[in-house]
Amino acid sequence: MTQDDTRAEALTEAEMKALEERFDPEVRFRPLLPVLGWASSAALFVLACYHFYTAGYGIPPATLHRGTHLAFTLALIFFSFVAWGQSPEPRNRLLTPLGLPLIDWVLAIAGAVSAMYVPWIFDDLAFRVGNPLPIDVIMGTILIVVLLEATRRAMGWPLPVIASLFIAYAYFGQAMPGVLQHPGASWSNIVNHLYLTSQGIYGTALGVIATYVFHFVLFGVMATRIGLGQLFIDLASAVAGRFAGGPAKVSVLSSAMLGSISGSSIANTVTTGSLTIPAMVRIGYPKHFAAAVEAASSTGGQITPPVMGAVAFLMIEYLGVPLTTILTAALVPAFMHFFGVLVQVHLEARRRGLRGLRKDELPVAWAVFKAGWLTTLPLFVLVAILLSGRTPYLAAFYGILSCILVLIVQNLLRHDIATAARESVRELWDGFVVGAKYSLSVTAAAALVGVIIGVVTLTGIGFKIAYLVTSVAAGWAAGVYDWLSFLPFEIMSVESLTLLFTLIMTAVVCVLMGCGIPTTANYLIMIAVAAPILGLLGVQPLVAHFFVFYYGVLADITPPVALAAYAAAGIANANAFKAGNTAFRLGMGKALVPFVFAFSPSLLIVVDGFTWSQFFLSVTGAMAGIWMLSAVFSGWLFAPLKAYERALLAASALLLVAPAVWPTVIGVALVLPVVLRQLPMLRRPVAERGVVEEGAEG
Fold first, then answer.
1. In sequence order, which residues have a C-beta less than 8 Å from that of residue 98 and are 6 or more positions away?
2. Where does the TRAP C4-dicarboxylate transport system permease DctM subunit domain lie (predicted)?
C-alpha cells in the first residue's frame, strides 16, 4: 500500500472537525445565520488583531487589557455556544433577533458591560476597594452570574459547580465543621474581593490568558495552517516508520513534534490519529491499542516545550521565573513520557511480530523537508526570540508575523499575484477567527478559576486543607515505618513516607478533578490548594507546580472521562473504555516521573541543589523503571514473561525510580534473574520464543 493509499484511509477535514466537536465541548460551536455569523467572525478577527498588535507594540495597563479581553470573550461565548443541546430553529423574530435567543443577547451585553465596568472606574478603584458602592456590588454580581453561565456553556457543569461551592463556603463559613470553619463574609465583601481586587476575576489567571496564551493559541493555529503540522507528521513517518510497529512509533514521534506547537490533547489526537491509527490497525495492532497509543502520545503535547498549553505561562507569573527556566525544567519529564509510550509500543510490536512500513509506504525525509522547510521558519523565529530573553508575547508576535509572511510566499508560489492576494487575505481571516474562537473557553475558565482562587485567599482554606492532608499523611507514614522496622536498613524515613503519601493524595485529587475540568483550570485550582500542602513538606515551588500540572494532564487518558482516548477510539472504531484503560497504562511513565522529580528535583535541572550525579541517577533509574513497568504491562521483555517474572519486574520498577542507593540496588537484584533467563532467547526468531499469557495486553 502506498503513501497515497494511507492518506486515503485518513479522515476528511470535515470528519476530523466533527470528531473533535463530539469529544471536546470547547470547540462545539453553534451555527449562526449569515448576518450574525459575519458579525461574530468580524468580532473574533478584531479580538485577534487587538492581541496581535498589542503583543508587538505594547500591552495596555493590566486592568484595561484584561477587561477588554474578558468583555469580548463573554459576548462571543453567548454567540458561539448554545444553552442546551443543539441550537433551535428561530421561530419568533422578536424572541430570536438575527436568529439568536433574546436571553443570549441579554447575557452577552451584560457580560461585556460588567467586564468593562472595572476598567471604566479604574481611576476611582483605590477608593472603592473595601468599601464598594451599591452599583459596584450589582455589576460584580452580574459578572459572576454571567461568568458561571458562560463557563457552563463553553465546557460543561463541573467547573461552575466547583466555583459555586467555593462561593458558598465563603458565605456560610460559620456553618462549616472543625478546622474548615471561618467567620464568613457578607455578599458585599465577597463581590468586593472577587470583582474589585486583583485577587479574583481580574487576577493572574485571566492576565496570563490575555497576555500570553491567546497569542500562542493563535500561533499554533497559523503554524498548522501553513503546513507545519503536516510536515511534522511526514518527517516522523520518514524517520520512524520503517521500524517494528512503525505506525505506532510514527504516532509517538509526530505527536511529540505537533505537541510543541499545540496545547490541545484532543486536537493533537484527531490531527495525527487520522493518519496513524488506520496505519497501526492495518499492520496488526488491535483497534483499542492503536487508539490508546495515539491518545497517550497526544496528551504528551501539553507537557512538550515550547508551548505547553497555557500552563508554562501561568508558571512564569506564579513562580516569577523566566520562561526559559520552565521550558528547561520540562525537557526531561516530557522525554520520559514519550520514552515510556515508545517502549510499550515497541514491546507490543515485538511480541506480536509486527512489521514496519515498507519503503513504498514511506515518504523520503529529504524530499519532505525540501518541500516544506519554509514552514519551519516561524517555529525557529519563535524559539530564538524566547531563548534571547525577550518577552513571550513578543516572541509570539514575530512567530505569527512569520507565519503570515510564509503564507503569502506560499500563495505567490502557487497562484498569480491577484489570486495570491485574495487567498492570503482569506486564509489570514480564517486563521485569526479560528484562533480567537479556540481561546474563548480557556478565557472563561481562567476568569472563573479567579473566583476560586479569590475565595482561597479570602478564607485561607488552602492552609486549612494543607494541615488536614499533612496530618493524615504523617499518621499513615508512622504506621508504615513501624511495619518496615524489621528490615536491617532504612528504605525510607518517616519524612519521606509522609511526602510520599501526601503526593499520592494530591495526585489522586488532580486526576479526579481533571475528569471534569480542563488541564489549565485543574492546574490553577490545585496549585492554589496543593502548593501550601507541598510547601509545608519542603517541596520546592517549581517541583510542586510541575507535579500538579503533570497529574492534571494525565486525566485526559484516565477513565471514566478520558476524552483524548475516546476521540481516538472514534477514529479507530474501537471500544472507548478499553481504549481509555490501555491509554492510561501506556501513560504510566508520566505517572511515575512526577514522583521521581518530587524526591529528586535534579531531574528538572533548574532547581536549587542540582547535581549532575543525582541527575544521572534519577534519569537512568527512571528510564529503567519505565522499561520494566512497560514489560510488565506488555508481558514481554525479550520473550514472554512468566507470572513470577512480571511480579519481580513490577517490584523492581517501583524501586528503580526511587533516586536512592538501596532501592536501586534491590531493584537491580530483582531484575537480574529475569534478564539472565531471557537473554539467550534473543537468538531465536520472535515466533519461537513462546506465547504471551492471556490478558497481558491490558
1. 33, 35, 36
2. 143-606
- Lookup result for grid cell 512503525: 246
**Longest pairwise C-alpha distance within the chain:** 83
Q: At what angle do helices 323-352 and 576-586 cross, to 10 degrees?
A: 110
Within 10 Å of residue 533's Cβ, how many Cβ atoms? 24
- Alpha carbon separation from 685 to 245, 350, 440, 688 (Å, rounded): 16, 10, 55, 5
Position 373, amino acid: W
pLDDT in tens, 654-672: 888 877 777 888 889 999 9
* Torsion, Cα of 115, 116, 119, 124 (10° steps): -90
Question: Alpha-carbon distance 18 to 316, whole Å?
Answer: 35
**In this model, does residue 538 exceed pLDDT 50?**
yes
Give pLDDT, residue 263.
66
Burial class (CB in 10 A: 0-12, 13-18, 19+), 307: buried
For the residues of 73-132, what is the DSSP string, one character each?
Answer: HHHHHHHHS-SSSSPPPP--TTTSGGGS-HHHHHHHHHHHHHHHHHHHTGGGHHHHTTS-
Q: pLDDT band for position 232 (50/70/90)? A: confident
Give the three-state DSSP class for 517: coil
What gap in Å lies between CA 168 and CA 187, rounded to an integer?
A: 10
- Strand (E) or helix (H) holding 429: helix 417-438
- Residue 199 cell numbers, joined: 485577587
DSSP 133: -
Range of lowest pLDDT (374-378, 398-402, 404-408, 562-566): 562-566
- Up-side HSE of residue 639: CA atoms within 13 Å toward CB? 18
Bridge partner residues of 636 (DSSP): 640
Q: What is the pTM of this model?
A: 0.85
pLDDT of residue 519: 77
Contact present, 281 and 287 (Cβ < 8 Å): yes
Within 8 A by CB and 6+ apart from 514, the residues are 522, 551, 552, 553, 554, 555, 556, 558
Per DSSP, the three-state class of 636 is: strand
Q: Which of 243, 255, 148 lies closest to 194 in space, CA to CA?
A: 148
How far apart are alpha carbons 351 and 73 in whole angstroms? 51
pLDDT in tens, 167-224: 999 999 989 888 888 888 999 999 999 999 989 999 988 998 999 889 988 998 899 8
Q: Contact at 8 Å (CB) between 295 and 277?
A: no
CA–CA distance, 245 with 252 (Å, rounded to integer): 11
- The shares of helix, strand and coil residues in the chain, as percent rounded to the nearest 5, are 75, 0, 20
